[in-house]
Amino acid sequence: MTKTTISQVHKYVDQEVTIGAWIANKRSSGKIAFLQLRDGTGFIQGVVVKAEVPEEVFQGAKSVTQESSVYVTGKIQKDERSPFGFEMLVTGLEVIHQAVDYPITPKEHGTEFLMDNRHLWLRSRRQHAVMKIRNEIIRATYEFFNEQGFSKIDPPILTGSAPEGTSELFATKYFDEDAYLSQSGQLYMEAAAMALGKVFSFGPTFRAEKSKTRRHLIEFWMIEPEMAFYEFEDNLKVQEEYVAHIVQSVLKNCSIELKTLGRDTEKLEKVTAPFPRITYDEAIKFLQEKGFDDIQWGDDFGAPHETAIAESYDKPVFITHYPTSLKPFYMQPDPSREDVVLCADLIAPEGYGEIIGGSERIHDYELLKQRLDEHKLDMDAYKWYLELRQYGSVPHSGFGLGLERTVAWISGVEHVRETIPFPRLLNRLYP
């Protein structure tokens, strides 16, 4: 018997195949049983007709329990009513393991219960769809940067210093000295860009930020490209082309998953480069006109401010040229205005907030040294970083995209805790 997976059944229409699967759900009506099967690659309905199978097969289908593992054999048929487009007319069923009292039933469950059972909740259609979209974004990321001539570089997770200060870092002992879990690989990626030209990293980052909002995780993944000889405008162009690429890739390759989640794909179809942009100055004026009397020049934007700005656009929008005082020490000042830097945050539509932060980096040795002094950072710890400006310094730029916020926006889920397999939150380190 030919063995296959649910995602490949389109190759076997009107043929009999065997699939290893789990019983996601089932129902029966006397002479017919419907098995909702999943195998990790997708979901398909298995139809068991009492009059067409041996009695033991039909009784097995009626008695098999939710999340039991099985080998199911049957004929693949086209089915217009199925979201997947196919169903299986079952001829044989072998139970591998009978599950007993599976805790996540088809009824409604509270968030805390589902989070306590995250290792099982991942099996649900909704969570399966989100994880498949996450996987497609990762695949499309590698595709984009490989096609653009970038090299993948892996920065360290344990660092001796912090690119944006140590107030929100997890500290640990590294034998007899202090170390921190990385909050960004950016500084190391700058060193790599001086060696390889265009580089990107993709890895975990950690923020000891005591936040409980729907946009925050303690541990999350970032894509961080850095590019030698790229100035501010070059950087924005890469960002919008990259984001447009991953959105269009999800639309093309995850249509079933987007439908499962009830995502309005018309909104995603509008996400093509170029993206609109406004300056920080313009954003402040816009917010004040919208009734945000609390916001003044020099203030950072919160979630309500970002959402109000994003609502005026049907694509992600860049907010550029933030005040120097709001941004990290390494950002290049605007040559025409020293009070702002050549940076941009990319704000996703529909209230999902900032998904990218990026800037042109300071490439002048003396200016970077001055900034380190102003931020009271340890000059010895940053000696290697300063040396990048001593030996063939060039204009260079980069950015960081938060994977989980991007997954949340593209898939349309409300909270980032659903966009990572095992979320680490302020009150959660289990499972």
Kindly describe this structure.
The mean pLDDT is 96. A hairpin with a 2-residue loop joins β9 (171-174) and β10 (177-181). The strands form four sheets. The protein has an eight-stranded mixed beta sheet. It is built from 13 helices and 19 strands. 30% of the residues lie in helices and 28% in strands. α4 (125-147) crosses α13. It folds into two domains: 2-97, Nucleic acid-binding proteins (OB fold (Dihydrolipoamide Acetyltransferase, E2P)); 118-418, BirA Bifunctional Protein, domain 2 (2-Layer Sandwich). Residues 131-431 form the Aminoacyl-transfer RNA synthetases class-II family profile domain. Keywords: Aminoacyl-tRNA synthetase, ATP-binding, Cytoplasm, Ligase, Nucleotide-binding, Protein biosynthesis.
